């Protein structure tokens, strides 16, 4: 699939188009739900515009546990429908983006007085396999204590009774979001980041336009539209208030925190889903150079635009890890990075944060604002299908000829050609052979492919035209140019945090690359030294906020 130009260098033209056209649908929110809606609607034949107030995936959709998983814990709540849906979706999303959604074996330790006893785990995982239609080697296995310790020697020998062994998928949520948006462009959608919805216009008491402010220039513009879907995540209720339709159910925000450690500090051999002393469950996931752990689940009522992991979160997570892996003894200074995000759940009286349902809900106002909230990363495609169905049903009744949802058959940008490469690892190996003469490691090829898939070849073409002596600076500049031309990168935060994940997964590389990348921004965007200095200060602040958990800071 050819790369479609998608650049803020063309921002005036994009805003001009948004101001001039009449759209079938405006999607508010550039997270995974909004991205999925844009692709679903555009691929059915609707004329779609998507606007996001910050960068794409800058809210919840870059701060999840980054797993496309079936929600084993929802079996405990007897939420079989949710388990069946998200379990089935895993295989579909893997097929659509095999470079981004990677199989990940998961170990479920069974411990004395733990959440799952041997019988419950065995039955639960069996039901999980059936509901999620798991096949072949991915089917669950129950392990004796000795087998479990052989697979993961770091488990607590004294209290370990055995383990369940089953399959999940790991992803990069922000990359999955941007690839959905980019794929929607191939069906005629228009998308813009840093575009803030300020108000709505009405005709005959129905929304007929959306008033938007360009966050970069401060200028306003209006998008005319027949329908509006708000997929604004934690900000859904604010838009409902703007529309004077915040009635009935409301959001309940909870904070989830993840900590990142060097792999050698927590060298687990595969992902582990383990008990926490307070009765919750937590993940530890190895990924390249690091292992990350999470998540916490606490009520949140503070600034939604500045969600951070604090010392209390860090102590809680470290204590949980040290309890399950007694040989490790992690300390605060071992943290190299972190992230914290909000879950926009639906409020239910009397329920704690961890008890709230992860099901999505759709609200429709009398003036036509359709809002969707709740749900899980794994179920984004089905959430999009349900909410778009509401619009297409009405449009079809009015005479429009539209396709049914077929996003389960639309490969996302970067999809690796399985006819040529039977497995993503083969494609990584082939790319490594091309990169090895320049001194790159297998990790570098893995990093490119698991971020960009087949688009890695475009990046290597750009790399070949650059002349920097340091090959890592040269490759990062090639990534940046690709991001600016095809992924709407506007500033260093977009690049280091959401397009490449370096702030989370390779924070040292950010420190090494920051100055040369800033110079590249200066050259491409023609910004002055004051803007460059401001960006540099923001990035230094981000580095500190994500990695510094010293007691002095508290």
Task: Jot down its keywords.
FAD/NAD(P)-binding domain; Helicase, Ruva Protein, domain 3; 3 domains; D-Amino Acid Oxidase, Chain A, domain 2; alpha+beta; globular; 554 residues
Fold blueprint:
Blueprint: H1 11-20, E1 22-28, H2 32-44, E2 48-51, E3 67-68, H3 80-96, E4 102-111, H4 118-131, E5 141-144, H5 145-151, E6 160-170, H6 173-185, E7 190-192, E8 195-203, E9 206-214, E10 220-230, H7 236-242, E11 251-262, E12 271-275, E13 281-287, E14 290-294, E15 298-299, H8 311-324, E16 337-346, E17 360-364, E18 369-374, H9 380-397, H10 424-435, H11 442-452, H12 456-465, H13 471-486, H14 492-499, H15 502-505, H16 507-525, H17 529-547
Helix pairs in contact: 2-6, 2-9, 3-4, 10-11, 12-13, 13-16, 16-17
Can you walk me through this structure?
- The chain is of the alpha+beta class and 554 residues long.
- The chain folds into three domains: 10-60 and 174-247 and 358-409, FAD/NAD(P)-binding domain; 100-169 and 252-346, D-Amino Acid Oxidase, Chain A, domain 2; 424-547, Alpha-glycerophosphate oxidase, cap domain (Helicase, Ruva Protein, domain 3, Orthogonal Bundle), CATH 1.10.8.
- The chain is 38% helix and 22% strand.
- The protein has 17 helices and 18 strands.
- The protein has helices spanning 11-20, 32-44, 80-96, 118-131, 145-151, 173-185, 236-242, 311-324, 380-397, 424-435, 442-452, 456-465, 471-486, 492-499, 502-505, 507-525, 529-547; strands at residues 22-28, 48-51, 67-68, 102-111, 141-144, 160-170, 190-192, 195-203, 206-214, 220-230, 251-262, 271-275, 281-287, 290-294, 298-299, 337-346, 360-364, 369-374.
- Strands 3, 4, 5, 6, 11, 12, 13, 14, 15 and 16 form a ten-stranded mixed β-sheet that branches.
